[in-house]
Design brief:
Number of domains: 2
Number of helices: 10
Number of strands: 0
Structural class: mainly alpha
Strand content: under 5%
Largest sheet: none
Order of helices and strands: HHHHHHHHHH
Shape: globular
């Protein structure tokens, strides 16, 4: 199943590079982090760039800054992640939001810009206008607000136990027809 291998990827991360271990600056398993990235969530170009970063001198810094980002230090760590990637090319939203989402899926969102902007446009959320390709904490906070509003609105529909929606899925449905503006 589509979800199963992503759960397996998450397990590689949380077992080989637990968030608390990385935050303390202790040694972690880079190979486990690399295995976590073996999903179809990044483009082949992004996946290749992340692999270069993780195997290079900047790898440890990238993972540590992603962990600090996951712990809530958004602005400084987002910029630190970007600097870690820059020797290998441009940093993208999917690359920068991947690890925080896999560590803490209930608190973070994985950002695929085109799909998310489309969704925000359809539901009338300000993220559609606030999105910028250059990663910033303000844009990410807007994404988290969109996710929070979406989760609350879906919950208000009282989905059944068999429903396939999960608030922390990291991906937003792009076929919504009603506005979220009140």
């Amino acid at each position: 199943m589509e979800r199963d291998y992503k759960v397996a990827a998450q397990l590689h991360l949380v077992r080989g590079a637990p968030l608390d271990v990385v935050l303390r600056g202790d040694k972690f398993d880079v190979a486990a982090v690399l295995k976590c990235f073996q999903t179809n969530m990044l483009s082949v170009f992004e996946a290749a760039r992340v692999s270069q970063v993780l195997r290079g001198e900047q790898g440890r810094e990238f993972v540590q800054s992603a962990a600090a980002f996951a712990a809530g230090h958004l602005e400084d760590e987002l910029q630190r992640m970007r600097r870690s990637v820059e020797p290998y090319g441009r940093a993208s939203w999917p690359m920068l939001t991947y690890l925080p989402f896999f560590w803490l899926p209930a608190e973070h969102m994985y950002l695929k810009p085109e799909k998310t902007v489309d969704f925000a446009t359809r539901v009338g959320h300000p993220f559609a206008e606030e999105y910028e390709p250059d990663p910033s904490a303000a844009v990410y906070r807007s994404l988290l607000e969109l996710a929070s509003v979406t989760a609350a609105r879906v919950a208000s529909l009282h989905p059944t136990a068999g429903s396939t929606y999960k608030a922390s899925s990291g991906s937003l449905v792009t076929t919504a027809k009603r506005s979220f503006r009140t």
